[in-house]
Amino acid sequence: MEDNLSVLASGASARVYRAAERHVVKIFHAAVSEEMIDREFAAATLAADCGLAVARPVEQLRLRAGRAILYPEIEGPTMMRRMRMRPLRSGALLRDMAAFHRRIHDCPAPGLRSLREVLRTDILHGPADPAVQQAALGLLDGLSDGDRLLHGDFHIRNILMARIGPVAIDWSKAARGPATPDIMRTEMLMRFGEGPQDWLTNRARDWAARQYVEHYRRIMPGHFVQVAEWRAVVALAWLRARAPVRRKAFLAYLDGALAKVGLPLIMG
């Protein structure tokens, strides 16, 4: 297999290659943990079993280039590319995105790791002052739990626009928990995740994030529970590993979220 591969995409954790017979193979970088690879396989399989539009993983492989997962090939651009090609369709695409995310949250995922523990670990190992960490952990302990399927990295670059409609990819950050923090994370990824940072693009990203949240809230207002509290702990946890994109704007957003729930500020 490894002698007949052509690169389709490359990211922080893996490269994706086209393989024979309408399949792709995702080969993970050496630094990626076995746990993360197993989690992606399990979560994508669970999502497929739940009837969601995903690429159902075929098998895990050990290749000379590293550990890998074999997937069926899904043809189509990312939602981000589709929005750039057809900007007047952006509002409709964001409505589709919100509806898709709601369907993900309809699925139970009792076997996946707990988002609460993921956030706890990220806060404790992040750069915030210990006083901020302890206050945030106390807040986290008081938040409601859940067993919903959470994608953990749901944004317009992880949605492929196939003939059958949007398809969710890259399930390596999946967990179980309540829907609210997964919605908050998507809002943050859309505004402050990796990507262009010019003035016009930043305005477009902020608009898209607002549209996504508003559409989701209209569809399922019951998934917006303890929003201010979840926004604060999710934003603080993201400090551990986020790329330095729109750093000043994100820190202002974080301090605003912390202040709203009475926690100490990062920037003072």
Overview of the structural elements:
- With 268 residues, the chain is α+β, with helices and mostly antiparallel strands.
- The chain has 2 domains: 6-72, Phosphorylase Kinase, domain 1 (2-Layer Sandwich); 79-260, Alpha-Beta Complex (Aminoglycoside 3'-phosphotransferase, Chain: A, domain 2).
- It has 9 helices and 9 strands.
- The strands form 3 sheets. The protein has a 5-stranded antiparallel β-sheet with strand order 1-2-3-5-4, covered by helices on one side. Strands 6-9 form a two-stranded antiparallel sheet.
- α4 crosses α8 (227-238) and α5 (130-141) crosses α8 (227-238).
- The longest helix is centred in the C-terminal third of the chain and has 21 residues, at 199-219.
- The chain is globular and about 55 Å long.
- The N and C termini lie far apart (55 Å).
- The mean pLDDT is 94.
Topology, please?
Layout: E1 6-10, E2 14-19, E3 23-28, H1 34-49, E4 59-63, E5 66-72, H2 79-85, H3 90-105, H4 115-124, H5 130-141, E6 148-150, E7 159-162, E8 165-168, E9 175-177, H6 179-192, H7 199-219, H8 227-238, H9 247-260
Antiparallel strand pairs: 1-2, 2-3, 3-5, 4-5, 6-9, 7-8
Helix pairs in contact: 3-7, 4-5, 4-8, 5-8, 6-7, 6-8, 8-9
Mean pLDDT comes to 94
Structural class: alpha+beta
Radius of gyration: 19 Å
Q: What characteristic shape results from the CA principal axes?
A: globular
Strand content: 15-25%
CATH topology-level fold name of the largest domain: Aminoglycoside 3'-phosphotransferase, Chain: A, domain 2
What is the number of beta strands?
Answer: 9
What is the assigned CATH homologous superfamily of the largest domain?
Aminoglycoside phosphotransferase (APH), C-terminal lobe
Specify the CATH architecture of the largest domain: Alpha-Beta Complex
Low-confidence stretches: none
Order of helices and strands: EEEHEEHHHHEEEEHHHH
